[in-house]
Amino acid sequence: ILEKLGGKNIEDVIASVPKKVIVITDLKEGDVKIRQVKIHEKKKMVVDDFIQYYKNRYEKIKAILLKKMDAISINKTKGIYNSVSVIGMVKELTPTGFSLEDETGEIEVIYNNSGLKKDDVIGVIGVVKEDRLFGKDIIFPDIPLAKKITTLDLSLLLTTEKAMAEADYIITAHKPLTERHIQFTTNPAIIKITSGEKEFIILIYRPQTPLGEIGIKEALKKRHLGPTVNMIKSAEDHFVLEPLPDIIWAIQEEKWAANYKGVSILSFQGSAKINLSNRDFITI
After folding, report:
1. Can you tell me the distance from the alpha carbon of 88 to that of 110, in angstroms, rounded to the nearest whole number?
2. What pTM value is reported for the model?
3. Sequence-ordered list of residues with C-beta below 8 angstroms from that of 148, at least 6 positions apart, any chain
4. Does 160 have pLDDT greater than 90?
5. Element holding 54 (H helix, E strand)
């Protein structure tokens, strides 16, 4: 490499590099480590990428549902005239319910007031009659009631601005200014903070259209953020909420806070200081 630089020695090369910006992807201090989960984003998605993306979503959420229910594949429901359980992706909504598909086939589900959307991955319990599944219950992946509430004796500043505040660490949308800053660069962005044997996960999401409290709680229930197609930039579905975050920060103008089964939800644009020991936060 030095030969290609035309005889310059390494000291000259280092001296020529601007030092105003410190680029940091991981921070480690004592037993505290902050890491941003790497998400590879493609400049251009092709058809095969989208096929893999939806397959990836199905497999991830199916694995969550299998912890809650026993299920058979859709092609094995033919000829069964008693109660069955299946897992699949909603292919389309119909006047009487929806069609559900898995890797083996599809089946029409008769079910009212499902509140479902296309591409939701769910479990269905029902009875098969004339090759149609008459649904009795919809099983969502949701958050387990036994989810452990994680706390850390740390304070954070979450900011979309070039802000400074008295906090242990700063999670920012801008280039780092100090060694205690870490920049989030993708949408969604996943920040993992470990201290000893504890792990604290912050998911940062900038929805294309604003999401209210009901919308984000629905996303947690379905374990998926439900992005618009133009937000998909990877063949792997990073919008699946697995592992579960401890905090979801929705970057949007409306300011509010909520809790859903142990997951703290914050909505704001700007800066907020949060105490990870009790989840208290104030906007700045």
Report:
1. 14
2. 0.87
3. 262
4. yes
5. helix 47-65
Given a cut of 70, is residue 6 above it in pLDDT? no
Work out the burial of residue 32: count CB atoms within 10 Å of its CB; fewer than 13 is exposed, 13-18 middle, 19 or more buried: middle
Mean pLDDT of the chain: 90
| pLDDT at residue number 8 | 57
Cis peptide before 243 (omega within 30 of 0): yes
117: which residues sit within 8 A by CB, 6+ positions away? 90, 93, 226
Cβ within 8 Å of residue 115, ≥6 positions away: none
User: In the 8-state DSSP scheme, what is residue 162?
Assistant: S
Residues 13, 14, 19, 21, CA torsion sign: positive
pLDDT digits (tens, 9 = 90+) for 231-284: 999 999 999 999 999 999 999 999 999 999 999 999 999 999 999 999 999 988
Cβ–Cβ < 8 Å for 270, 160: yes
To which residue do tokens 């009790």 refer?
Answer: 278
Q: Which of 70, 82, 76 is nearest to 123 (CA)?
A: 70
Q: What letter represents residue 2's amino acid?
A: L
Q: State both tokens at 192.
A: 């993992």
